[in-house]
């Protein structure tokens, strides 16, 4: 097991997950000012990590992480060079999130994902990227175990507190567990649930790795098909007022998470007002 060390960037209990296209430097600065501990760059940012550099330049203390760098599209050697560039400019503030993505992504030579991930980590080791400065996108037991052995911990996406509890049991104490949680700040279910369903159904309910994980959690084919049942969508996307959503986020902490990466929906809206309201409800 890899114990986190003083060299592992501090995340705080709550951070913000957002696609790279919506993370302009001023948004990053506002997230830091609101009191969050980390910014997770969603999607598959290129190996140059320039989006991370811009966020680090615009902020002073917050941790910036990738959620995640895709091993098929970002060569390990280039990522390592970028890591060292960021470390030189902003020592101790960048966390490299790595993952294998999904086999349905077009144009990838997606084969032997587990062994390819191990080989990617080997290259990072050889290039001097410390294990305690990276986390793995981990859903299933095998990669969760790898995240404990070869990195600072795990960054699961599209999960529930049940998954968080099971992941913590497998990881044991020490490794970081930082799940992502989608939220819609709206008390009108008729408005909020369709927003959540749109974000979850396309593409995640059509991707093998996410569907397999939901099935491991006990969801049936009928609950996953046709846009997802209401109970599935409500489990994956918390909606309601700030106090209710804050309670839902804390469920991950109670289940063993160290940190929760909050994704505010709809994705195209300015997230800062909702994040400020949530920060107040979370006491950060």
TrEMBL record:
Q: Which GO terms describe its molecular function?
A: oxidoreductase activity, acting on paired donors, with incorporation or reduction of molecular oxygen
List each copy of the Luciferase-like domain by range.
26-126
State the InterPro entries in the record. Bact_Lucif_Oxidored (IPR050766), Lucif-like_OxRdatse_MSMEG_4141 (IPR019922), Luciferase-like_dom (IPR011251), Luciferase-like_sf (IPR036661)
Membrane spanning segments where?
A: none
Cellular component aspect of the GO annotation:
cytosol
* Superkingdom assignment: Bacteria
Alphabetized SUPFAM superfamilies for the sequence: Bacterial luciferase-like (SSF51679)
Q: Can you say what this protein is called?
A: LLM class F420-dependent oxidoreductase
- Give the species: Rhodococcus oxybenzonivorans
Lineage of origin:
Bacteria, Bacillati, Actinomycetota, Actinomycetes, Mycobacteriales
């Amino acid at each position: 097991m890899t114990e986190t060390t003083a060299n592992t960037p501090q995340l705080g209990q709550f951070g913000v997950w957002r696609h790279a296209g919506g993370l302009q430097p001023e948004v990053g600065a506002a997230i830091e000012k609101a009191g969050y501990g980390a910014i997770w760059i969603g999607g598959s940012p290129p190996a140059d990590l320039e989006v991370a550099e811009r966020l680090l330049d615009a902020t002073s203390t917050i941790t910036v992480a990738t959620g995640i760098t895709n091993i098929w599209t970002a060569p390990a050697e280039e990522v390592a060079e970028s890591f060292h560039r960021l470390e030189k400019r902003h020592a101790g503030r960048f966390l490299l999130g790595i993952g294998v993505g999904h086999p349905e992504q077009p144009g990838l030579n997606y084969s032997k994902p587990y062994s390819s991930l191990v080989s990617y980590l080997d290259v990072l080791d050889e290039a001097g990227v410390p294990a305690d400065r990276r986390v793995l996108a981990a859903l299933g037991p095998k990669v969760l175990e790898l995240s404990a052995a070869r990195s600072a911990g795990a960054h699961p996406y599209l999960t529930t507190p049940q998954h968080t509890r099971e992941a913590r049991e497998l990881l044991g104490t020490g490794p970081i567990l930082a799940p992502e949680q989608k939220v819609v700040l709206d008390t009108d279910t008729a408005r909020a649930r369709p927003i959540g369903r749109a974000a979850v159904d396309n593409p995640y309910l059509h991707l093998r790795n996410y569907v397999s994980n939901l099935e491991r959690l006990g969801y049936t084919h009928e609950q996953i098909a046709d846009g997802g049942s209401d109970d599935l969508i409500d489990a994956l996307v918390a909606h309601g007022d700030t106090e209710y959503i804050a309670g839902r986020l804390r469920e991950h902490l109670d289940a063993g998470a160290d940190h929760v990466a909050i994704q505010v929906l709809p994705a195209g809206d300015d997230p800062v007002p909702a994040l400020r309201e949530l920060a107040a409800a979370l006491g950060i």
